[in-house]
Structure formats: C-alpha cells, structure tokens
Structure prediction request, 563 residues.
Amino acid sequence: MAVLVFAEHDGKVLSEAVAKTVTAATQMGGPVHVLISGTGAGDVAGEAAAIAGVEKVLTAEDAGYDHALAEPLGDLIVGLAGDYDHIVLAASTTGKNVGPRVAALLDVMIVADIIGVESADTFVRPIYAGNAIQTVKSSDAKKVVTVRTTAFEAAGEQAAVGIESHGATAAGGLSEWLDDRFAQSERPELTSARIVVSGGRALGSADNFKLVEQLADKLGAAIGASRAAVDAGYAPNDWQVGQTGKIVAPDLYIAVGISGAIQHLAGMTGSKVIVAIDKDEEAPIFKVADYGLVADLFEAVPALIEALDD
Amino acid sequence: MKIVVPVKRVIDFNVRVRVKPDQTGVEFANVKMSMNPFDEIAVEEAVRLKEAGKADEVIAVSVGVKKAEDTLRTALAMGADKAILIEATDDVETDIEPLAVAKLLKAVVEAEDAGLVICGKQAIDNDVNGTGQMLAALLGWSQGTFANTLKVEDGKAEVTREVDGGLQIVSVKLPAVITTDLRLNEPRYASLPNIMKAKKKPLEVKSASDFGVDVTPRLSVVSVNEPPARKAGVIVGSPAELADKLKNEAGVL
Prediction:
C-alpha cells in the first residue's frame, strides 16, 4: 500500500524538508502520496507534484488547517489513514507535534526522528542525544514515522503528477492560533543552510557575538549558537544547535568558542566538514573537528575573515 | 483543578552513556539515575500554578520500575502533593513505550478527574518526544507542546511554543496537555526540610494490570550501536592556513 507524506509550507513555498521526507518515504515502499493542507495548499501543490517519486498530491485547502494546529491536522491525517501503510512527517516542530497525536489515534507507536530506513518496518534512530543509535522493528499494522530530514538527500525532480482536492474541513474548538513571532532574516535558514557558523560562551557577550555574524555573512552562512551562549543571552533561542535545539548537517560547520558539550555535538556531528576555533586545546569539540585552530577567537576570526578574501 | 505531572527516571544527563558490547542496549550498571530534566520543569510549572492559586493539587505519576519511587519522592520534595507509581516492569533496561505510558496516564487522569497535564516534551533516554501528544489524543484533549511560557486563565491556557523559526502563541481550551521546553522555568532545588516532608506524603503503588493496560512494546529493538566515529582531524597553525585548507582541500567553499 501507499505511503502518505505530510508536507509543510508557508502558503507561498513548500518546505525544503518535503523533498527529503519523500526520499525517506520511497525507501519504505511506495507509491508516495503527498498531503498539503491549509490556505495556499493549491498554490504550492505543483512544487510537490514535481518531486521525484511522488505519485499523487492531495490538497485540503481549508483555513482551519492553517498554522499547523495539531488537533485538526491529526483528525485530517487519521481520516486519510485507511488508504496507507505508512504516514510520514518531517521531524520538525510541526511533525513532532502532530505525528504522535496521529499515532495514538491509530493505536500505533510513533517511530520518531529516524535517520535511516532498513525496510518497510525497520528503522534507525538516535537515542541518548545521539550517543547511541537504535534499530527498531515495528509490529504495528500502520507505521507513523517522523524523519530527521538532515539525514536524507532531497529527492530529484520529475514531470508533475496529478493533484487532487480533498474536501475535508477542520473542526475547530480545541485550540486557536494567536500569533507567530518569527525572526526576519536575510540569512539562510539554520537547518537547511549549506554553511553554518556557530558561537559559544567564549564570545563573552551579545556584542561580541557580532564577530560570528561577520564571519557568517562573509560566507553566506546561517548562524547558530551553543546552549551556553543562548542561556547567557548572547544569542536568541532559535539559533540554538544541539539535542535540545536544532539538528543541523551542513556541508561546513564552523564552531567558534564552543567547547563541545555532548548535547551540542548531538546537534551537529552530521555535518560534512567541521571546523573548531577555540583557545582550549583540550576542548571536546576538537575530537570531532576536521580542522582545528587553537587560538584566541578575537584574533583568529577577524584574521580568518581577511584570509578568506585573499 | 488537579494537575497530573508524569515523571520519568532516566540516566542522569551528566552521565556519558555507553553502548553495551553485545549491542542490546546501553549500560545501566552503577550508573546515576535522575528525574528527566524536562519533567523537573513540568513539576516546577505545576507547583507554581498551585502556588498562584490556579490549581488545588499536583499529582506526580511515574511508570516503570519500583526504584522510580525515588523520582516521585523528588517530585514530592519539589512540591507535588501526592504520587502514584505504576510498576510496569522489574527490569531497569525495559523502556515502557510512550503509547503504553499514555494509556496508563489516561486512566490516572480520568480516575483523578484532572484538568491539566504538564509533561516534559521529551525523555532524554529514548528521545521520542511523544507521550504528551499521545495522551492528549487518547483523551480527546487539546495540546500545547514545547511551551516556553504558560498562562492559565478562564478555562484556557495561553501557550508560547518554541517552534522552528521562532515562537508560536496558541490558546488551548482546558482540559489540555502541555509539554515543557527548556526555557519554561528554572526548577527549584528540593530543600532538606522539604525532602524530609516528602517522605510523609502519600505515594500509591499500582501495577499496569490494575488499569487493564497492555504494555507489550510495539517496537522491538533489533540492535543498539555506537554512533559512527568521525575520523581524526588536523590542527592548523594559523587562520591563513585554515582559509587555505577550506578553499583548496575541504572542497566546501
């Protein structure tokens, strides 16, 4: 039977996570159908229809599904579940919010945050903040799975397949959206950026954190931060990289003044190339770094910015 | 209003977890166990709501081995009024799945006629991030996950949620399940007098079968392995050398 992928979007463009989630979904079996909900679903459906491996796109264009509230979305997905063996969502904050709700309504165990698909019923996922990797086999008739999208390549393109409108309407009442507070930024989004520059507690102040921003802007990179830097108020919450923050896996990750606590490493060791700049040569970050520079970051970062020009 | 707070006994967050050589799980022998850090935040938030006069009673619940009593005593010392231990296994290495835990919690919530559940968003052992959402689904309740601010009034909870890209603010109708993110509060330390007092607070012991819930896992663990090690890197001598390596060797610029 088919695999249903839930697709996120902002009303204008499809989330970059969708093509990666489709890659995971095709490894579970096929054919893959993509569900898009809320205002603007029809406008972005064409993007989903052109992702290689997708057989059909379903749209549920009711404003009651806007803002990805878990209660109506859970009902929507459960209403479609009869036709599918697998229901797959990105392990984004939306997928993590909705996926377990769907699983419980179907009386199945959620298979959360997978980084590999062994077969239709067997999946690989990190536990203990990535300090161990577990392979689990599900005995449930239906599998509800969330996918750590940084672990999968994006699916390619294809000639667009058909789009069907699914006439469901959301029953409101349990929860209501009030506001979003999203930081506006010209920089790339942290979890999908090709280069990430992150700063740690060694920066010493929010003002000094600008050094990280300068290096990031030089490289066209997204900005991250360690939990220590966030807790100290040097950087906003949503920049936090780590098990309790964002999981990133860019081509290049530059850690500036980050010692490398276990929980930070869990969020970035999937990066292709890791660079560490820190004064303390004993810092654990150097154990995972491809290139380490033991130096005072206040001298090394400006010098690096200059050297990148040459 | 009664608040139910589930708490889990897990390997302490400061312990470096080691995979067992036979690949069946991780090492539990002589390892320090503590309350899941997100659950401490949940207990703190519930106790603060009671202190603010918004709740009458805080009930801590744990599902697992007999030793989870220690975790419940910690919750009592932090200010919970009573505790319920649901013994579901006698093997510390057996992790009761979130679906089964949610079913047991549903039974407790109904028996206690609770109006709010505050859970940690995620247990730091299995990292599932699912129990609260599953409980809300089974109860047919609303859910406010990953909360960094919680305001309870007029039969509603206003929840500021930490989501990808920033914050989302929602209003959920009570009864509801709230799950806690890191920045919701800073949990208090239990004082010695409160630890002594906690010993006298009621702690009921039940079993999973008392609630008629089957805790047989739906996921079987095929293997548990070490994460792939990264190959050893090089220490470069200067920022200029670093820039050169990035441009000419690493192939990422």
Remarks:
- Chain B touches chain A through 77 residues (CB under 8 Å).
- Residues 2-249 of chain B form a domain with the Rossmann fold fold (CATH 3.40.50.620).
